[in-house]
Amino acid sequence: MTARPFRFGVRVYYEDTDAAGVVYYANYLKFMERARTEWLAAQGFPLAAFEREHGVVFVVHRCEIDFHRPGRLNDDLAVTVEALHRGASRLLARQEVRRGDDVLTTARVTLACVDAARWRPVRIPAALAATLETSA
């Protein structure tokens, strides 16, 4: 399940930086969340509509993140999403935050599909599962 990674552009604003003038580490998770939302929309599954239609939400079950280089104020960054593996109710994605050719951050994010009312794991809806298989 390795397709060409989806890319989403982010500009670093003052509010994204810390006292040292670099991107505050937790903000990389926000950038990655935005990219995953846009990735699903680009696949034909706008998140809010998808959640209403199927009664499911995706939650981060696990995140392994490595920080390689700092991002700085006004940087133009590219945040990537690449689906690595899909199980019945989980999706493993690799994400990077890049500034040009420099990799700033890499992460492996495991998402769980859960029933929005009961907060219990459920199967990834068939339409999305099929799209993930064919996009590989």
Give an overview in words.
A five-stranded antiparallel beta sheet has the order 1-3-4-5-2. Strand 4 (90-99) and strand 5 form a beta hairpin. It is built from three helices and five strands; from the N terminus they run E-H-H-E-E-E-E-H. The chain has helices at 25-42, 47-54, 126-134; strands at residues 6-11, 56-67, 76-86, 90-99, 102-115. It is elongated. The mean pLDDT is 95. It is of the alpha+beta class and 136 residues long. It is 26% helix and 39% strand. It starts with 5 loop residues before the first strand and ends with a helix.
Q: Within the largest sheet, what's the order of strands?
A: 1-3-4-5-2
Low-pLDDT ranges: none
Mean pLDDT: 95
Helix content, binned percent = 25-40%
Radius of gyration: 15 Å
Classify the secondary structure makeup into a structural class: alpha+beta
- The helix-strand sequence is EHHEEEEH
The counted number of beta strands is 5
Which oligomeric form is depicted?
Answer: single chain
Overall, the morphology is elongated
Q: Biggest sheet, open or closed, and with what strands and sense?
A: 5 strands, antiparallel
- Could you tell me the strand content as a percent range? 35-45%
Number of helices: 3
- End-to-end gap: 4 Å
Can I get a quick summary?
The protein has helices at residues 25-42, 47-54, 126-134; strands at residues 6-11, 56-67, 76-86, 90-99, 102-115. The chain has 136 residues and is α+β, with helices and mostly antiparallel strands.
